[in-house]
Amino acid sequence: MDKDKILLFTPGPLTTSETVKKSMLEDMPTRDIEYANLVQSIRRDLLYLSGSKPEDYATILIQGSGTYAVEAVIGSIKSIKNAKLLILINGTYGRRIAEIAKIVGIKFVKIEFKENKPINVAHIEKYLRKNKDITHVASVHLETTTGILNPIEDIGNVTKRYKKYFIVDAMSSFCGVPLDFHACNADFIISSANKCIQGVPGVAFVIGKIKTLKKHSHSHSLSLNLYEQWRYMEKNNGSFRYTSPTHVMRALRKAIDELNEEGGIPLRYKRYRENMDLLISEMENIGFISYIKKDHQSPVIATFILPKSIEFKDLYESLKNEGFVIYPGKLTKIDTFRIGVIGEIYREDINNLIDHISKYIKK
After folding, report:
1. Helix H or strand E segment including 157
2. Is the distance from CB of 108 to CB of 101 less than 8 angstroms?
3. pTM (predicted TM-score)
4. What is the pLDDT of residues 33-77, one digit of tens each?
5. How far, CA to CA in Å, does 91 sit from each of 130, 286, 354?
C-alpha cells in the first residue's frame, strides 16, 4: 500500500475516488447555464434516488454540513401553530436534534432508548396514542454513534397512522441502504454529499414533501430558511440564494454518476454489506467484540469494544502511520472505537487493515 495515501475507515468524510477529486479542479461561474443545468440535474437525481415522485417532493440544497440541513428543517417547525416535536433518540445524532430544537426554541419532548438497541416502535405508538399534542416526529435512520439501523419504515407507518409530520435524518444511510422513503411517509429526508453518495463535504440536502414545505414557510434563520431556499431554487433555475459551493457541486455530480456506474443503490449496498461482514468476521477472529448485534448492524460503520489492554490513541497513531484512519467511540459508559467501510474501500483494503490491527495487538 502507498503510505502517502490515507484510507479513511470512517462514516464520512470518507475516501473519495480520484475522479471525484479531479472534478473539482475546474472553476465554474454560478450564473452560467451550464452550472444551472448541473445543479438541476443533481436535484432531479437525488429525488429519484430517494424513490420520491417529483410531483410530490422537491430537493432543497443547503450549503454546509448535514447538521445545517437538520437545523433548517427543525427551524421550519416554528411555522406550525402549537407545534411540539417528539425526538426519538438512541445515539449522539438524535441528541443533536434535541440540542437544535432547544436553541431554535421549538417545544419538544424526547424518548431515549439504549444505544445498542433499535428504537422500539410499539413504545412510540403507545406514546402517540396518549399524547395527541405531538405534531412532528424526528428519528435518525442510521445512528453513526454505534452503526445501528432503526426501523424507519415501521416508525413512518406509525406517524402516518397518527397524522404526524415525520422528519428522517438519513445522513449516513441515504444511497447506502436501500429504502423507499416515500413509502415510509417521510415529510423531510435529510442527508449530505459526503456520506454514501461518496462526494465531498460542503453541501447537504433536504428532500421535502411539497405540501408540507408550503406549510413550513417560516424560520428562525435567514440563511437556513428551508422554504425560501426551495422557493428561490424553483424560481431561479436551481440557483442558491447565497454563494454556491461550485466545486463541491461538481464533485457531487461526479459522485452520483459513479454511483450509477457501480449499479445504483442495490450494488453499492451489496459492496458495503460485504465489506461490513468481512470486517466484523475478521475482527472477531482476532478477538474483538462487536457492540451491535448482527440483526441491527448497518453496512456503514461498526462499533467494537476496546480491550483494557489497548490505548485507543496508540492504536490510532499506529494505524495512521500505515495509512489507515479509524474513529474513536462516541459512547460515554463503555470504551469503544469505530470502523467504517464506506467510500472507496474494498475487500483488499479491509484485509490490509485487519493485518495491521493484528500485528499491533501482538506487539
Report:
1. helix 152-161
2. yes
3. 0.96
4. 999 999 999 999 999 999 989 999 999 999 999 999 999 999 999
5. 25, 27, 27
Question: Angle between the 264-285 and 347-361 helix axes, to the nearest 10 degrees?
Answer: 20
Note whether 52 and 58 are within 8 A (CB): no
Distance CA 317, CA 32 (A): 46
Which residue is it, cell 448541473?
A: 38
In the chain, count of helices (H) and strands (E)? 12, 14
The answer to whether the CB of 114 falls within 8 A of the CB of 293 is: no
Instruction: State residue 11 phi and psi, 5-degree precision.
Output: -90, 15
> Can you say how many angstroms the Cα of residue 249 is from the centroid of all Cα atoms in its chain?
18
The per-residue pLDDT of the chain, averaged, comes to 95
The share of the chain scoring above pLDDT 90, in percent, equals 93
Question: Which H or E run includes 4?
Answer: none
Identity of the amino acid at 301: I
**Measured between alpha carbons, how far is 134 from 214 in angstroms, rounded to an integer?**
20
pLDDT tens digit sequence for 112-133:
999 999 999 999 999 999 999 9
In this predicted model, what pLDDT tens digit does every residue of 258-308 receive, in sequence order? 999 999 999 999 999 999 999 999 999 999 999 999 999 999 999 999 999
- Residue at 354: amino acid letter: I
Torsion angle, alpha carbons of 19, 261, 57, 14, to 10 = -40
Which residue in this structure is represented by grid cell 431554535?
A: 104
Grid cell digits, residue 241: 440564494
- Amino acid 109 reads V
Cβ atoms of 184 and 168 within 8 Å: the answer is: yes
